[in-house]
Design brief:
Elements: H1 3-13, E1 20-21, H2 30-42, E2 46-47, H3 55-77
Parallel strand pairs: 1-2
Helix pairs in contact: 1-2
Length: about 80
Amino acid sequence: GDLAGEAVRRLRRDGARRVVVAPYFLAPGLLADRIRDSALRAGADVVAAELTDAPEVADTVLARFDGSVATCRVLAAA
C-alpha cells in the first residue's frame, strides 16, 4: 500500500500545518523513490534524503557490533 501517502494525508486532514517525512533508508533506490514520490504527491512539505554514509550510522553499526561481540565472548567462556 501507499503508507507514506496515507500518513501524510491523515496528518493534513487532522490539521498538520507542516509535514516532514524522514524515511529510514541507507541507500537510494526504488523503495526510497516510491516513498518520496508518494509523500510529496500527498502533500508533504519535505522528504529527507537517505542516510547513506553518514558517520553517525557507521558509529551506531559499529557500537552494536561491538556489543554483540562482547556478548558472544561471555557466552563462549561459560
